[in-house]
Structures are given as structure tokens and as C-alpha cells.
Amino acid sequence: MKIHLENRQRAVRVNVPWLRRFAEVALVKCAGYSADERFALRAIPEVEVAIVSDRVIARVHRDFMGIPGATDVITFAHGEIVMSAPTAVSYAREFGHSTDEELALYIVHGLLHLNGYEDATTRAAARMRGVQGRLLRACLKAVPAA
Length: 146
Prior knowledge:
- This protein is of the alpha/beta class and 146 residues long.
- The protein has a single domain (2-142), classed as Collagenase (Catalytic Domain).
- It has helices spanning 16-30, 54-65, 85-95, 99-114, 122-142; strands spanning 2-7, 46-52, 73-76, 80-84.
- It has a 4-stranded mixed beta sheet.
- Helix 1 packs across helix 5 and helix 4 packs across helix 5 (122-142).
- The longest helix is centred in the last third of the chain and has 21 residues, at 122-142.
- The model has no long low-confidence stretch (mean pLDDT 97).
């Protein structure tokens, strides 16, 4: 399994080297947690993570999900995770942590989606949040925020 992270936006400063290290650790840790016991993440040869602008993620959101407006993270079953840097800035401020940590959360969230976790219902979302929180803490411990 491989993970590749690329910053495709310029408006928000992000620590790309740290996020790449975080993503590598998160990939390994998340691969061990499957909601449906299929462990689909292990079958994806390479996960692509793109950090983009709100304008770009809004277009992806509309084109692929039929929903207007920007969102935080979108995951595609073939192994692509698209994350909005400006949205990460907003949520990071709201929750009192760094933009890089918010983007790290999006990486874990996307990897869990690839491994069968869903958040469409209240029950599924609660289950996903629990696993996501534990994994995020474990990854941040392994790769402390810069």
C-alpha cells in the first residue's frame, strides 16, 4: 500500500512534509480497521490525497455528488481523497487546533471511508467518529504535530 499527498492550492499554508509522514502512518493504522470486514483499503494499490481550494472541492462536490457548495473532504472508492484547505482553516479555528491537524483528521476520515466506514446515518456516524478519534490520536502520537 502506498499513499501520495499533493498540495494543489496556494491560499493556505500547510506543512506538506509533516502531512505526508502523517498520511503514511495513518494508512497503516487505518488499514487494520474495517467496518464491513472487507478491508478494501488493503486492495487499493495507491491512495491519492489532494489538498485543494474551496472552489475546486465545490466543483467536485457538485459534479460527483450533485450537491452545491464546498465541503471538507470527499472520498472516492477507487482511492482518491480530496480535501479543502480553506474549509480546514475554518474548522480548525472553531475546534481550537491547527489547520494541519484538521487536514490530518480528513486523511483518517477518508481512509476509514475507503475501508467501509460510513457516516450517512446517526448510528454509523457515531461509530465512525469513535474509531476516527482513536486512530487520529494514535497517529498524532506517532507523528507529533509540527
